[in-house]
Amino acid sequence: MDLLWLLKDFRNFALYMVTDVIINIASITGIWLIAARFNGIGGMGIYQVLFMLGYSLTVSGVTNTLFSYNVYFISRIIGRGQMDHVLIMPQPVWMTLLTEGFIPVSGSGVLLSGIGIITYALSRLDNLVNPVFIAALILCICFSVLISLSFSFLWGSLAFYAPVAAEEVCTSVDNLFSSLRSFPLNGIAGVGKYFMLSILPVGLYAWFPSLVLMRLSSPGNIGIFIAIALAYLGLVLVIFRRGLHYYVKNGANRYSDRGHRH
Description:
disordered C terminus; 0% strand; mainly alpha
């Protein structure tokens, strides 16, 4: 269906893709200009910062391609009572959500932008690219996506219990990540840095894995990165399943005899 949209009207699709690329590149331009003005940020060189920005866009692109529409914003599906539609499908919940959010054509604008920026940054960094680096890069991107998705589902689970109040909680989570994910955290003090690498894992979105990949941090830190990602996955599986069981028993209580959602 996503491809049919392209075949239906190529001009509108091309306009959408071009504007999407421009918007996403513009979203990182401010940090890039600061890095260019001061010849780097926090011990990171200009092209190291650019690599981190490209990494951030690539993670956003993968998330947008695989978990678009309201899957990433799971609180909307739960809060609006649309989880009923997911539960009655003749396949597992995870499979329904994965296929529902898959838009490989229209969602590729951000992904292509990120890959392009990473490629350009790597062309300016010496003695970095090799098969091991490429494998590590792909692995890190996958775990960054996992952390971002888990954090969104973690907060989105609140909609099981408070569908009206928490319907847009995932939007606030996304705005938080969008505002902070592209900033180098080198200058932040110890407590704040650890906070942004655990409780509020914006540093794991791009900054921390980029440091490891560019050999600005110990290679062993990739193990810490993976461990935190798996911990978030385990936590969200427990909390989301409990919320889903509550939903199955009680339903979506936002439906009533009055109001536009009846």
